[in-house]
Amino acid sequence: MSRLLVLGSGASGVHAAWPLVRAGHDVVLLDAGLTEEHYRELIPPTDFATLHEQDSDQHRYFLGDQFEGVPRGPVRVGAQLTPPRAYLARLPFEDLRAEAQDFHAMQSFARGGLAAGWGAAVPPYSDADLHGWPLTRQDLQPHYDAVTRRIGISGTESDDLAGYFGPSPGLLPPARLDSNGEWILATYQRRARFFHSRGLYAGRPRLAIATKRYRHRGPLAYHDMEFWADADRAVYRPGYTLSELQRAANLRYESGVVIDSFAETNGGVRLSGRRIGGGEFSIDGAHVILAAGTLQSTRIVLKSVAQQQNSVPLLSNPYSYFPCLLWTRIGQPTLDRRHSLTQAMMYFDPHHRPANAIQVQFYSYRSLLQFKLLKESPYGIGPTTQLLRHLLPMMVIAGVHHADYPTAHKRAFLSGNGGLRIEYQPSLSERRRRTKIENDLGLLFYRMGLYPLRRIDPGHGSSIHYAGTLPMSTSGAPLTTSPDGRLADHPRIRLADGSAFPTLPAKGLTFTLMANANRVGSALAKDLS
Amino acid sequence: METEAKAFARHLLAVRVPPSLVDRYARALEAHGLLDSLGRDPLRPALLYRSVILPLVDAGLARCEPAAPFRRRFLLFAALAETDPRTAASFLPHNYYLVPTAIAVGYHGLYALATAFLGRALLLLLRYRPQ
User: Fold this and answer.
1) What ipTM is given for this predicted complex?
2) Cα separation of A232 and A52, whole Å?
């Protein structure tokens, strides 16, 4: 069989490679593959509270050996990229940095990609979300199910979000909620009819967490250290699937390379790039699946395909967050054993227009430490510290995701030095719609006993969800992809990451990235059989 | 450096500042390029030797000049103190009883507002007083 090349080891790359490897094809998975060993060795495998009270070396991993964990500017984007996770955003070459004003363009060249530090929420896209796609939920469902079996998803099918998530085979037991999550959902339940009449539905999140032993991972130890370490291997990381793939004789993992372009040769494709250690690199294959992440895949395509038009659309879920006080919890005890990820989820669709609906995720703030909040306080450090000591146990962060659709003012270009340049400017009506629905949500928060302290808009691109540059369509137009992932006019190149998403619904996209990559990989395997 | 760390500790911590924390503070200032950042700032002597002024200046800077070197140094010290087991207790949550929590929140909230107001006035006096 001829050699197939898959580029990237993130959420898309490993799940695109999986069906090809299982079908017996000779697959080479190409990856920059940056890793982090230094801090991993330093973090004892115990819970946050114990470490915080006892470990005299905690400053080394909480702040970093060069104190890089203490932010120099405002804390806006990537607060979850703690020193042990900072390698996820490291660039092996400076020319790979996207030029962007007023847009946060984070890329990962790490083994496992950005999902090595993701929040693990796995909402699938519904038919309403897929409006404008040449796909339906029915097309994606077998791939959601395959990925669910591969990564292990915990959750329930018996609350108000069951319809939002849809059926899922073999769910693991839901993760235990912390005190704030329990309180929010109990308050919601008491007034469920009122909230439903306003278009608000809440429930437990579905998370890619092994709450019991699953494929040599877990069970979740409730150490509240998910932003720092993976001692219990409970939260899914693409690196685990890569390790499984590496055990197959027909997969070769080639790390330490960055691909810059492709060229179609007689009966195949040649990928060219650089080795991180120095020197050039090239490799030939019969077919290529680009799954290097939206921004990198787009850079490679634009560099490789001579076009009059050198710009493409770009999507990124607008994101805001609200530090909220759960004031009705004053005087209530707090459970110490918990995880750091989403505790409760909400879906808010006040006008029954799914295109304008929003998704809300609630986190309790503890293991990211207080000093990041002190920096944001408009009051003195002393009194703020004292206030936080009393209020932090009842503080939650509500993260709000909005949908995004292509417009003429949200685009990515190939710049003169061969990198990407991004111009992203939402229209006035988009900004107004976002403000309106957030204000409506804020009013419902009060009815839930949640007092939003302020609204923080971390800026464009802060969701770290990027997509839509080479959208899938049935038109066959240049710089689009076919429904099975083929790049128009380049049938040996397939796109399996977010670049092929025509729109971005107001949900985390990683689960759909995995399912779509599995679909693209399966389609290639079927074509070759 | 030690005087400065002690001044911060007096304001922030319930315990004496351990010597290793002072060393770490010096290394952190260097890593963040803040070692000589106060320079000839007229706030410096007032802060270090008149501890009553420190919380007022800090609160005044919080809103007007959140990136001022003094405040960045204080935040760096707070981060170091929070991640040292000998001083972390000053950052751990208090008890959860309703009445003490409500009283403490009220007290510290009023204190925060008062120091912010007075601090801004003091900052104007210290920074712009005639030489």
Assistant:
1) 0.93
2) 18
